[in-house]
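ARCHIVE CARD
CATEGORY: sequence design from structure
SOURCE FIELD: tokenized fold
FIELD CONTENT:
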């Protein structure tokens, strides 16, 4: 909790980083409000004794116009309950709070999780009651308290972006749309369609949950520290999963097997999954898929049909 200092500043409680206690922040209660710029981000990091780590993919947005662009593209309304993963120092959080009903911020770094409410109270006091912060790993999240999130908006760490998005779409059926910033190559893979050179496992699995499209490119200079590659904005709009009597996990098993040896025909690539090449051919033909095709040519509906045929009792002709 924060307390008032002798000159009216907000003095935030201490926590642990490394070997000793760290004073989180001392901010003037009369400081200017608004989005964070480069100087603000560096000042907050200095107060937290924060050194961005590759382990948690910490590249903080320092450009207010980029934040405004993300919020605009996410089309968040006053009825939306936003889930933000990896809020970091609060750059995007401060842009989301004025337009959303609530923002639930999942932060894996305990120091950042502890500091975020105080940053928001200092710079956006009139909407600070809309913020909920959870010190949690998004990949381990199984549920959230009400109100359930309707929109996911996040600047995701490059190294876990795809697993995080797929996990949250699977665990949180209330999510209707997604707008995330990821590494440009990952953005291309997520939005790729069958037949594209970048179409693969992430593309097919994301397509199970949603219509996926690229929403723009973001240069590396808007981050601190600057990454070595550009980023991309990916939009997802939830849709019904393909009609099938099998489970999502069974369909994803087919996807994984098909792309594990993507240069091979499906007859060969699915031999291990089906038990033999001849059984793979039987399943494929029964599902209406030519065995000589490759995984990169299949829509997720076709993967679902293959999984369903494999799980169906074999009929004697």
């Amino acid at each position: 909790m924060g307390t008032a200092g002798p000159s009216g500043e907000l003095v935030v409680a201490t926590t642990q980083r490394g070997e000793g206690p760290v004073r989180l922040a001392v901010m003037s209660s009369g400081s200017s409000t608004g989005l964070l710029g480069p100087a603000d981000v560096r000042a907050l990091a200095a107060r937290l004794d924060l050194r961005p780590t590759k382990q948690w993919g910490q590249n903080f947005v320092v450009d207010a116009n980029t934040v405004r662009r993300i919020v605009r593209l996410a089309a968040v309304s006053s009825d939306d309950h936003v889930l933000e993963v990896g809020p970091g120092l609060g750059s995007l959080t401060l842009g989301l709070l004025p337009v959303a009903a609530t923002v639930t911020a999942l932060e894996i770094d305990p120091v950042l999780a502890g500091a975020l409410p105080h940053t928001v109270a200092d710079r956006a006091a009139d909407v600070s009651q809309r913020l909920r912060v959870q010190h949690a790993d998004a990949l381990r999240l199984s549920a959230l308290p009400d109100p359930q999130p309707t929109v996911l908006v996040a600047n995701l760490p490059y190294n876990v972006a795809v697993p995080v998005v797929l996990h949250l779409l699977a665990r949180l059926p209330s999510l209707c749309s997604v707008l995330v910033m990821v590494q440009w190559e990952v953005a291309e893979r997520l939005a790729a369609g069958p037949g594209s050179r970048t179409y693969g496992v992430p593309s097919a699995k994301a397509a199970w949950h949603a219509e996926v499209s690229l929403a723009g490119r973001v240069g590396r200079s808007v981050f601190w520290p600057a990454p070595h590659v550009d980023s991309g904005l990916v939009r997802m709009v939830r849709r019904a999963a393909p009609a099938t009597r099998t489970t999502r996990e069974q369909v994803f098993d087919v996807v994984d097997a098909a792309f594990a040896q993507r240069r091979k025909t499906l007859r060969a690539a699915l031999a291990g999954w089906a038990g033999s090449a001849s059984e793979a051919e039987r399943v494929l033909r029964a599902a209406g898929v030519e065995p000589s095709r490759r995984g990169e040519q299949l829509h997720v509906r076709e993967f679902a049909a293959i999984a369903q045929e494999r799980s169906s009792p074999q009929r004697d002709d």
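CARD ANNOTATION: The domain at 54-238 is CATH 3.40.50.150 (Rossmann fold). The longest strand covers residues 210-218.
SHELF: design records, drawer C
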